[in-house]
Design a protein that fits this description.
The chain is 55% helix and 8% strand. By secondary structure, it is mainly alpha-helical. The longest helix is centred in the middle third of the chain and has 45 residues.
């Protein structure tokens, strides 16, 4: 039991008293904020669960898309013959005669290797097309 001040006469009274024994003024009970705290806690928990669920859903969708794309590539790649990795500028010239590059970045790498890098005396094993051949080899299609 604690003592509080009366709102009217400011004398000390019990916090359990409904009226002041000195002046008879009804005492207001301090409003409980427990409901607000519980409501805020529940909202926070729901928000956290929502964020976690959304993240898991997005991750699942991304994984499905990657798996689907990998399956597509596997089917596509398994039905095509790709050029073997060249070991010299001469080999790359032969590939250029037999295959067409299908993407702009592949055309650029092929051009850089055969024109710019060779003219500058760069060793073939240091060219971009040689280093990243596994990425480029799928971007050629046979001319025949």
């Amino acid at each position: 039991m604690a003592l509080i001040q009366c709102v009217e006469c400011h004398k000390e009274i019990s916090d359990k008293a409904k009226r002041c024994p000195h002046c008879g003024c009804p005492q207001r009970k301090p409003k409980s904020r427990k409901f607000v705290k519980w409501l805020a806690s529940i909202c926070a928990i729901i928000a956290i669960i929502g964020f976690v669920s959304y993240y898991q859903y997005e991750r699942t969708q991304i994984d499905k898309a990657i798996k689907s794309h990998d399956e597509y590539l596997q089917q596509t790649v398994s039905n095509q013959a790709y050029p073997k990795k060249p070991n010299s500028y001469y080999d790359l010239e032969k590939i250029k005669e037999q295959y067409n590059p299908t993407t702009p970045h592949c055309r650029i790498a092929l051009y850089e290797a055969l024109n710019t890098d060779r003219a500058n005396g760069k060793p073939f094993t240091e060219t971009k097309i040689y280093i990243f051949w596994n990425d480029y080899k799928y971007n050629f299609e046979s001319r025949y």
